[in-house]
Amino acid sequence: MANNRKIGCDCGGYMESKTVRFDSIKTEAMVCPGCNFITLTKEQAQNYVKLKQLHQIIDAERKIIKIGNSMGLTLPDQLQEFGVKVGKKIKTEALTQNSFKVELE
Ligand SMILES: [Zn+2]
Fold first, then answer.
1. Which residue has the higher pLDDT, 91 or 3?
2. Residues 64, 72: Cα–Cα separation, whole Å
3. Please, what is the Cα angle at 95 between 78 and 61, to 5 degrees?
4. 38 Cα to the center of ligand 1, angstroms
5. In the predicted model, is pLDDT for residue 1 greater than 70?
6. What is the DSSP letter of 78?
7. Domains of the chain, with CATH numbers?
8. Cα 14 to ligand 1 centre (Å)
9. How far is the CA of 24 from the centre of ligand 1 (A)?
């Protein structure tokens, strides 16, 4: 965040920006180190809503299909709201032995 304005907590502490988990979604939030009170700035709330939408669209079991001599997987059409289009460049990278990520460029 560009501005470092401090947000005070009722307990007298100051909120710190931290990564937290809401419904298995990791997101940035303001957390009070004193009493663990959590709140979201407007920007963090907007990011959380977007991230939640993306989870709803992409989190699913899919099947690998055959495309010519290659393997492929289909992506839901709603991903276009997130700038995913046919022809768009993506970057793939291995994470663990059985997972990899797909990153939009
Ligand atoms: Zn507090």
1. 91
2. 6
3. 40
4. 9
5. no
6. G
7. 1-74 (3.10.20), 75-104 (no CATH)
8. 7
9. 23
